[in-house]
């Protein structure tokens, strides 16, 4: 495995880990459902894996767009000799843009999902940080959570930073890089989800992930920027 592939794999692992571990909605619903529905440990882990794979699938679908765009870049004849630098600059600039977006998001009101237990049922609703003019928090309509609803929630919440990584590999026409990125992203996401669920079930809370959640976009942007800068200036 060459240095570039190592750098891309580490970037994918880092982004996937922080994206997954920082969002309580990646593991809290499984903990709540497991306890309220008295699921076995095996069933809890199974549904965590299924939803994790659904989450990755939607991310990969978006990432394939990046591969296609990189593939098209590769076909432009006058870019043949410089496409490596072009894709590295694209990765670096996208990372900086995403970092700026993440910093901007940190200063804004943001919403995240809450899971409430009512009797034997679990409901999900979005809660917006900050208060309205009347001084109240913003709450949205509650939806009853079933395993299929949970799966749908995960499929509809992809990880956008995977796109520039796959764009970079597409520009190189490197299937080895594409496969490595998708594999590492999938494994890291699912393993992190299962690990956080197990920690929650057994009563451990090692991270204040609700506070970390607001920084995840900035973290992803910083990681992409570092990776792009390494490709450009350090010969990764």
Description of the structure:
The chain is an alpha+beta fold and 236 residues long. The protein has one domain (1-126, 147-234). The protein has helices at residues 3-21, 28-36, 41-74, 83-106, 147-155, 162-171, 175-201, 209-213, 216-233; strands at 111-118, 121-131, 137-139, 143-144. Strand 2 (121-131) and strand 3 form a beta hairpin. Helix 1 runs parallel beside helix 7 (175-201) and helix 3 (41-74) crosses helix 6 (162-171). The longest helix has 34 residues, at 41-74. This is Urease accessory protein UreH-like transmembrane domain-containing protein.
Mean pLDDT: 78
Counting DSSP E segments of at least 2 residues, the number of strands comes to 4
How many DSSP helices? 9
Our estimate of the beta-strand percent is 5-15%
* Low-pLDDT windows of residues: 130-137
Round the Cα radius of gyration to an integer and report it: 19 Å
Query: What is the succession of H and E elements?
Result: HHHHEEEEHHHHH
Characterize the biggest β-sheet: 4 strands, antiparallel
State the domain count.
1
Protein name: Urease accessory protein UreH-like transmembrane domain-containing protein
Topology:
Layout: H1 3-21, H2 28-36, H3 41-74, H4 83-106, E1 111-118, E2 121-131, E3 137-139, E4 143-144, H5 147-155, H6 162-171, H7 175-201, H8 209-213, H9 216-233
Antiparallel strand pairs: 1-2, 2-3, 2-4
List keywords for this structure.
single chain; 236 residues; alpha+beta; 9 helices; 10% strand; elongated; Urease accessory protein UreH-like transmembrane domain-containing protein
């Amino acid at each position: 495995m060459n240095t570039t592939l190592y750098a891309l794999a580490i970037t994918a692992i880092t982004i996937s880990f922080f994206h997954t571990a920082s969002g309580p909605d990646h593991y809290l619903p499984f903990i709540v459902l497991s306890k309220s529905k008295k699921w076995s440990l095996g069933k809890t882990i199974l549904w965590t894996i299924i939803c994790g794979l659904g989450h990755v699938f939607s991310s990969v679908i978006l990432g394939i767009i990046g591969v296609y765009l990189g593939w098209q870049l590769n076909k432009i004849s006058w870019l043949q000799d410089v496409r490596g630098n072009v894709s590295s600059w694209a990765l670096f600039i996208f990372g900086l843009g995403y970092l700026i977006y993440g910093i901007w998001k940190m200063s804004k009101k943001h919403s995240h999902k809450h899971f409430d237990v009512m009797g034997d049922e679990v409901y999900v609703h979005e809660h917006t940080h900050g208060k309205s003019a009347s001084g109240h928090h913003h709450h949205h309509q509650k939806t009853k959570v079933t395993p299929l609803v949970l799966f749908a929630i995960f499929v509809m919440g992809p990880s956008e930073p995977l796109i520039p990584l796959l764009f970079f590999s597409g520009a190189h026409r490197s299937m080895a890089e594409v496969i490595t990125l998708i594999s590492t992203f999938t494994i890291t996401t699912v393993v992190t989800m299962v690990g956080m669920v197990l920690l929650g079930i057994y009563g451990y809370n090692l991270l204040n992930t609700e506070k970390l959640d607001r920084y995840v976009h900035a973290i992803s942007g910083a990681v992409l920027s570092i990776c792009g800068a390494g490709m450009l200036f350090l010969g990764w």
